[in-house]
Amino acid sequence: MDQMKPPAAGANSARGLTAKQRERCAAWLFVLPDALGLLVFVGVPMLLSLVVGFFEVNGFGGYRFVGFGNYRRMWGDPLFWSSVKVTVAYAVMLVPALYVAGLGLALLVQKTNRFNAVMRSMFFAPQMVSLVVVALVWQLMLVEKVGIVSRLAPLVGLGGISLLGDPNLALFTLVLVSVWFLMGFYMLIFLGGLQDIPAEYYEAAKIDGAGPVTSFWYITLPLLKPTSFFVLLVSLVAAVAGGQVFDLIYVMTKGGPVNSTSVLIIYIYKQAFQFGAFGYASAMASLLVLALMLVTVFFFVLTRGGRFEHD
Amino acid sequence: MLATAALGLMTVFPLVWMLVISLKPASDVFTPSLIPERPTLGNFLYVLTEVPFLRYLFNSFFVSATVTVAALFFHSMAGYSLARLRFPGRDILFLAMFSTFLVSLPVIIVPLFILTRTLHMLDSYAGLIIPAIFNAFGIFLLRQYYLSLPRELEEAAIMDGAGYWRIYWSIILPLSRPILSALAILFFLANWNAFLWPLTITSDLDLWVVQVAIANFKSQYAAAWNYVMAASTIVAVPMLVLFVIFQRQIMESIKTNGLK
Asked: What superfamily does domain B17-24+39-257 belong to in CATH?
């Protein structure tokens, strides 16, 4: 394998490049389109959000440096703090609910057979539909008094309430719809994790007289640790900054009623594209960029480079 | 098993309901019957003829297909380089690319909008397509895949004096057909369903994609749920059909890669 390669070497020297240089050139050319694209359309915007946050931008595209002005404004803006609160509340409800729903469904359809295959597809089906369609369908079903869900609600003792119109309930309703939409995805992730647990562990536990609850507690859960970590991290990021969450809330409630579902990414969007406050919006977004970077570093360190391996 | 089946049916109920309403006349939208008493295709006819819906469908298809092809091409090139070629700075470059993988669109939407405006790409197909191509997930997955291929594959080709482009084109690409087809479905799906970016950069009605169109449709025809559901059905059905055909590949690729 280590011998010289006469034909290739001859071709190289004709172009005045060694094999090594040729490989480097090729490597850079192959990676260039994506590296440039990511730099321009992700890297630069990340940096820009930090920079633009220090400016006031007027409607004609004029920039005026205001130092920490936008950050001070944030500090004194009750709507900013309320959107932070709503974001935290949404994430605190969504992340555990998704974990339980995803893992529960995975355990339910874990065995490979035809029935379970159909069920998996049914649980996953909502993922195929856009969040715009999801939001519209649920809006229709939740129309007060006459929507199908509103008609069925009294049967389970929930009559006379407005699931989307009541500021105390709207966020909770959005969590339910989010779980309905996202659970199939997390079910698959958990199925992947469950598949990696060797069946002998369960057999051995059975011989030792362990019941299903015991083996779930002492085998399944501990061995699912990498999967659980991944699910919690990804669902947390999705809850706080996810595009799907944005689409759902934007179409379903636009942040209302009375800002009760106005999460941070919705408030940022409104400040920018409704009120034209690009500087202020960027300052708020910069906090999310920094938070995401921290999470990425944390993720990277803990997984030793993005790999998930059992210890 | 009965409980599982009940849960499954509850899960798909909203999608079934969408279809049911799309077949009902306006007056029956809020009757609770699962089978339309007076089924009609009028809603579909209205949406397809009275609204430039075919134009929106074309825009969505064109943008999604172009993004998918370009993304697969660029990501497989980058993945090949990062996995199989040696060059200084490779690991740092990969880390830098990978570090963008948690950054989502709502977080960078404002500066990305400013950037796109500066590049004069607002209200253009280029603006819809180009920024949507680049994402770290695809690169990451393809790199992983290429790392698993045996080295001997290209060594023989190098001995024969083949260039790197020929190795990529006639050895690596054909070998990655399974993962590329799985990614093609996922990319197309994600772009067909995308809403936020097209909403933000298109005001020209001729450039609207279907998702933006139906979201606006709702506010325009406030109470005309029969039309809104017919439009939603038209938008959702192609993806659901895609799912029925490719469900094994779609679910398997998510399950084993853990990423979407």
From this structure: MetI-like (1.10.3720.10)
